[in-house]
Amino acid sequence: MLIKLAWRNLWRNKLRTSVMLGAMMFGMMGAAVITGFMSGMLDNMVHNAIDWQISHLQIHHRQYVKNPDIQVTIADSDALLGQLAQNPAVQAFSARFLIDGMIGSARSSKGVRINGINPPAEARLTPLEDSIIKGAWFSEVGRKPILVSVKTARRLKLRIKSKVVLTFTNGQGEVTGSAFRVRGIFQTPSSQFDDNNVFVRRVDLRNIAGMTGIHEIAVLAMYPGEVDDLQPLVQLRDQITAITSTQNLVQDWTQVQPLLASMLATTNTSSTIILGVFILAMGLGIVNVMLMSVFERTQEFGVLMAVGMQKYQLFGLILSESFWLGICGALLGLAGCGVLIFVLQQTGLPLGSMAEGLGAYGIDTVLYPRVSPTEYLVMFGTVVLSALLAALYPARQILKQRPVDAMAEKH
After folding, report:
1. Are the C-beta atoms of residues 209 and 176 closer than 8 Å to each other?
2. Which residues of 93-121 are buried (b: 16+ CB within 10 A; e: fewer)?
3. Which of 4, 119, 210, 260 has its CA 20 to 30 A from that of 341?
């Protein structure tokens, strides 16, 4: 009976109720879009970093992590690679020979990290092969091919088949170098990565350096979960640690890039703050609506108390009105959020002039929001709860009055 009466009371002033419901709906949509794009941006950063740079796990010699010297290579690397190939939890892996050096052309030169890779393994691990916009991927034939980024090609005035010279310190501590031919020009989402890396065949680089061995093994796990679900990675990391030499160090992506992991961890905090601000503003609006609704019916409530309605029943009536307001507003908000997020997930948000600046952090030029079902549920529950809490003050104010005083009240 009280619930039915509360529903009718809610619509006694249709305009006021409709305005409040609209404010709640658009407020929820705004909060969902802001938190969705924040989550989407961080997810994009993490996925791009994992896909292009750090993978899920990395294996190095412990001394190489402290000081990346060319002579410090992974212990028992051949045996370790064989065990990784037989591990069902490993989706792909690539062994790399890494050297910091210089790349130079007839026009200019710059410092880069020279990545010596096994092309078939690297193609399974990263999307590098698909990122080539000019030229082609490595082939088994051809003399000393090299892949450079668009930024490097622009700075050094390079084209396909241009000759470049790589210079670095070899395993004997002597400065050496060799000429390479540009086979492909690539572009990744991270402009900083593009600026700092070139790729050659591992066998070519090791021959020039006069060395064997590898400096890094990047591992991509069979990983069906979200990026913040680290349990499968921790298990795989522990498995590999148990089978490899104690001289080697196995790290997951959160250990390789702790700053990126901490940014992802603060997403929930940021979303909570945004939602809290929205709830506070919405709660004040509900308090205002309920105060107006209650005080303009003071005489009516006085009559109800005079004819025998208990105060707890009157209290329940006011809470029921606020509950209906919260339910309707939350449902409309969820519907609006669902439609808006669905549309934005199809179209995305082009970053425009900000794309170049954000590209340094590995963010794509178009962002897509991500709002999880749990976040929708939290928003729904929070809106309903805040509506109920907002009704406590108006209800308390009317219940403090005596029936005779309430009936004598004039508005």
Report:
1. yes
2. bbbbbbbebbbebeeeeeebebbbbbbeb
3. 260
* CA separation for the pair 208, 211 (Å, rounded): 8
The position carrying tokens 């399974």 is 124
Distance CA 407, CA 147 (A): 86
Mapped onto helix, strand or coil, the DSSP state of residue 185 is strand
Q: Which residues contact 93 (CB under 8 A, 6 or more apart)?
A: 81, 84, 85, 121, 125, 217, 218, 219, 220
**pLDDT value of position 410:** 58
Residue 192's H or E segment, with its range, is: helix 191-196
| Residue 225, pLDDT score | 60
Instruction: Show contacts of 339-348: CB within 8 Å, 24+ apart.
Output: 340/29, 340/32, 340/33, 341/32, 341/33, 341/36, 341/369, 341/371, 344/33, 344/36, 344/368, 344/369, 345/369
User: Which single residue is written with the structure tokens 């929820």?
Assistant: 28
Q: Which residues of the chain have pLDDT under 50?
A: none
Mind giving me the DSSP string for 290-349?
A: HHHHHHTTHHHHHHHHHTT--HHHHHHHHHHHHHHHHHHHHHHHHHHHHHHHHHHHHH-E
Q: What is the DSSP string of 349-390?
A: EE-GGGHHHHGGGT--SEE-----HHHHHHHHHHHHHHHHHH
**How high is the pLDDT of residue 375?**
82
User: Looking at residue 137, what DSSP letter applies?
Assistant: -
For residue 109, which amino acid is it? S
Half-sphere exposure of 289 (CA within 13 A, CB side): 34
**Count of alpha carbons within 13 Å of 101, Cβ hemisphere only?**
28
By the 10 Å C-beta count (0-12 exposed, 13-18 middle, 19+ buried), 339 is classed as exposed
